[in-house]
Write the structure tokens for this entry.
Amino acid sequence: MEEKGEVLLTENFFIRGGHLYIVDPRQYVIHKYDRDGSVVSTLKYEDLLVQQDRGGSGGPPPPPEPILDDNNNHPYITLKGNVLLPAHKGGETLFELRDWQGNHLADIGEIPEGYDPMQERERIRAAVANRQVPRTDLHQAFPVSDRSNPGELFMVYSAIPKIAKYDMSGHKLWEREIPDTPEIDSLVSDLVYVMNEYNYRNAPRHRKYVWGTSSPAGDLYLSTYTNSSNPKSHRPLWIHQFSSEGELIRRYKLQSEDELSYFPSIDHSGRRIFTILKEGLEIRAYTF
């Protein structure tokens, strides 16, 4: 018998106010806990995903792999405790914003023009070989709450890449293309290398950014993806800082002889970036 608050698989967690939220994709639930570790309530979101599948397969997508390797298109808890659920599978927007009771509040995030979830495998491989984003990956995106304004959030299109700003009604405030940088260009080269070297049946996903946070002042920080199969070992982790208007203003290079996780934590008041090793439990701290 399932116990109250039982977790079978942890995909992500969020600390919002005095509560901890844990996403369990195996059961399609999000548990809400208080500071004492007691379960306050649970949101079951499987039926909400089925509602989004308008004319599709008639069911929610399969649960993801046990280890979350990026934040793209996953459930997200906003600063006000509402829930963003991925809606691109059968809908017309990237996410649906719902309250904790599951009631629909808004549609947030435009699906890029040309997105095709059924693009043929050879066309995907050809796009990667030509250093282009396959149509299947145009929807790769994740939200980041604006800590300076809980009523707004950044939408990071990680494959394109670009940033858009939305309010909680779903209105787009602005949109910015992210300029090219050598470290992002190297990720595109990695995709071509990995696809040819390992002869994958399907091309690896096209993603440049995998994690993000904002500062109390409203600046956005994004970490780049580091492919463990890339041709160069110990590739540094790069964190890009953007202004509240989406302008790239600083780039931070985190170098290590060991592979770093690309899910850091930032202490803005102490000006330190914390991250762990991909293998092992050691924590590294970098000043910035």
